[in-house]
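In response to reviewer comment 3 from the previous cycle, which asked for concrete evidence that the modeling workflow produces usable outputs, we include below a single protein chain processed end to end. The sequence was submitted unchanged, and the resulting structure tokens are shown without manual editing.
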Amino acid sequence: MSAARQRFVAADVGGTNARIALVQSGDDGRPAVLAYRRYPCGDYPGLGAILADFVAGHAAGFGRADFERMAIASAGVVLDGEVINSNLPWRIVLGDLRRELALRELHVINDFAAAAYGSQQLAPADSRLLTPGVVQAAPGPALVIGPGTGLGAAVCLPQPRGLVVLPSEAGMAAFAPGTAREIEVLRWLQRRGRHVATEQLLSGPGLRNLYEALCALDGTPPQLHAPAAISDAARRGDALAREAVLGFCALLGSVIGDLAMVSSAQVVHVAGGIVPQLADFLPQSDFRSRLVDKGAMRAVLERVPVWLIENERLGVIGAASWYLQHLRERGGATP
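The workflow returned the following structure tokens.
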């Protein structure tokens, strides 16, 4: 089996779930998923335990050597051999993983860098258009963004020999309010800390923060504490829950517009997270108007299509795509 056809493990590790797959390059050079499982992170003491369980459950059907190379997509950045991230329930120390799992090769890439790679591998049926009438994208950079446990974003630059992906920590950028109500929300949140990151509002926990802020501003004790409960209440007509959800959608549009301008993105892919649960609210909200409301850049942003990715394997496909490109760039050599 050639190096490019070697089987390996690709993983997508978020604050809530870890998605693990055994992957092999397909005949067309794209990653083919041979085995797949999703794990709730909170049910395991660490990533090593999750990966060990996956290997134990599938090694008999393949071979131990198929599990000795891993490409892991994770939120955060790697510093001194450890993933630095505030949304994971446990530490990820690369040396520990190599030792515990007897790995020959281990790579960790940013989760939204992986999403950017994966966005280029999906079928049309894997995405839903969020900008009716705006379908065709001009050639150029693609922005991938997604509110989940936190807010991730990356920019994808297509090149003749592959992709160049620029990961970011856009979720940690300061929240920029766009309405008088959002200014009040910002001031309320600043009681907890001077820096209010965008992901404190634009994420699953952020929807809860937004709802609690609106309740506090209106002098009403919050009755809801989970994002799903808030969205369900909004559908039943609860006024504050509905304001929180519509405000979340508007803020999503505003941030997408900001990042599209910064990156010169010609197309935007919204990667899963909480957005599929709120997709029915987007047309009712100021999502579209806030996205394009960028002064002289309105005419440019009105031509940028936005797609919602609805394939939960995006992260593992992206991590695998990165690894296969990595193999090609180093000439297919294996250690």
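The chain has eleven helices and 13 strands. We consider this sufficient to address the reviewer's concern, and the full set will be provided in the supplementary archive.
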